[in-house]
Write a structure and sequence with these properties.
Structural class: alpha+beta
Strand order of the largest sheet: 10-9-17-18-19
CATH class of the largest domain: Alpha Beta
CATH superfamily of the largest domain: ATPase, nucleotide binding domain
CATH architecture of the largest domain: 2-Layer Sandwich
Number of strands: 19
Number of domains: 3
Radius of gyration: 22 Å
Largest sheet: 5 strands, mixed
Helix content: 25-40%
CATH topology of the largest domain: Nucleotidyltransferase, domain 5
Distance between the termini: 20 Å
Number of helices: 14
Length: 431
């Protein structure tokens, strides 16, 4: 359709343009990256999937839309506009525009210098508010259509990652959660502003006023199982055997349990749409390595589960280095966290205790509810952990962990040895 979703990377060339200069580090002009890092704590990703890249794509490819646009809003801020008629963004939802000065977490504001560097118009950006601020009341016609009182207050709210952090119960500093949805991330709140440009990690404004959280993202996690279901097992082609069963993911778990840890030496790399962290590489791709004539679909399922976990461990390594300490327990949320088999694989690969949060797929919406309750004075942020139940704790199996340590080393080697091949293959003009 005509929507620009978060996976859209068509703005990548324009990010590279605004980041260009004579002397560069990791693809960024030194003079420009200095200002981005000093003021925002990060920089526009080369992948072109940040909000600023989407705006630049429209400015360059659809200037008619760009010039007619009054304000550029993130999805939740657009919904707030429809509910209240008011244009605004929260300090956390504006972050990936990379145009705010975040040095003082209590006084975040637009930076004229950064806006000029981005090459966009200040008047097209909304006013900024805290995630817990009351934006306004429902418009009368909206209240009537929803069957609600026009006295209902609309809270600014927060994006999905920040909401998930609240919904996981991990609101204390260094209380980490790993999210497995279409994509994945590993984050925790931290008491400092810091950036690791080499691995695409930064501490950015949280939904909790005056707090930072670690921002990172891995492009495809649960999407790898969807790929396996739709493209390999039940494709809609001449060999189609019909729709897969409704309980396909439970069947995947049962299949994976039949195969020993390590999938008989087969490794799946989950980079089906490039990668952001801990490597920012739009050309890298996924695959099954070390298949044999004995490889079965059961092997493929388990290898996918393990491959996503290996990728998560790579992220865990750099996040722990970033925060300067071991994250001894990790809360697991998102649709993938409903799999007991996957949670145990993560415990074994991470060599960490995994806390499977009850109703993990609801973490994001639960976090949004908590935020609303805090904004209305019904609870405090400090009350959130007691409101989140842990369904099960998974402890590492030492024998599996030793095996996975070896497999993980090979997983990273696969990328390092093949990165140039990926770049050559995926830079080709396929038109």
């Amino acid at each position: 359709g005509n929507a620009l979703i978060w996976l859209d990377s068509r703005g990548s060339p324009y990010v590279r343009e605004i980041a260009d200069g004579l002397v560069k580090v990791e693809g960024y002009a030194v003079s420009k990256i200095f200002h981005w890092l000093r003021l925002t704590g990060g920089a526009p990703g080369h992948s072109g999937k940040d909000s600023i890249a989407h705006i630049l794509y429209l400015k360059n490819h659809r200037p008619d839309i760009y010039h007619r646009t009054f304000k550029f809003l993130e999805p939740k801020d657009y919904i707030n506009l429809r509910l209240t008629g008011k244009f605004a963004a929260s300090y956390d939802s504006i972050t990936l525009h990379w145009v705010t000065d975040n040095r003082d977490i209590r006084k975040i504001a637009y930076s004229d210098r950064l806006i000029r560097m981005a090459g966009i118009d200040r008047e097209k950006l909304p006013d900024l508010k805290h995630a817990t601020e009351i934006l306004g009341l429902l418009k009368p016609e909206v209240a009537a259509s929803l069957g609600l009182s026009p006295d209902v207050k609309v809270i600014m709210g927060t994006p999905d990652v920040q909401a998930a952090a609240l919904g996981s119960g991990g609101v204390a500093d260094y209380d980490a959660h790993f999210y497995i949805g279409t994509s994945s991330w590993l984050t925790c709140h931290v008491p400092f502003k810091k950036t690791d440009i080499f691995h695409g990690i930064a501490s950015l404004p949280s939904a909790i006023p005056g707090r930072y959280f670690v921002a990172d993202e891995q492009e495809t996690a649960g999407a790898c199982l969807t790929f396996l279901r739709d493209n390999i097992f039940f494709p809609k082609d001449e060999l189609s055997v019909g729709e897969g069963p409704a309980n396909i993911y439970q069947i995947f778990d049962a299949m994976a349990e039949k195969i020993p840890a390590g999938s008989n030496g087969m490794i799946f790399t989950p980079w089906l749409y490039g990668e952001r962290t801990p490597l920012d590489d739009k050309f890298v791709r996924g695959g099954f390595f070390n298949q044999s004539l004995e490889t079965t679909r059961e092997h493929m399922v388990r290898a996918v589960l393990e491959g996503v976990a290996y990728n998560g461990r790579w992220l865990l390594e750099v996040v722990e280095k970033f925060v300067g300490r071991k994250l001894s327990t990790v809360r697991m949320i998102g649709g993938g966290a409903a799999s007991n088999v996957w949670c145990q694989i993560f415990a074994d690969v991470f060599d960490r205790e995994i806390f499977q949060i009850r109703e993990p797929v609801l973490a994001n919406v639960r976090g949004a509810g908590f935020l609303g309750a805090v904004a209305m004075g019904y609870m405090g942020f400090e009350d959130i952990p007691d409101a989140v139940d842990v369904a099960h704790v998974y402890s590492p199996n030492p024998d599996h962990t030793r095996l996975y340590d070896r497999m993980f080393r090979e997983f990273k080697t696969i990328y390092r040895k093949n990165r140039k091949i990926y770049a050559r293959l995926n830079r080709l003009d396929r038109a």
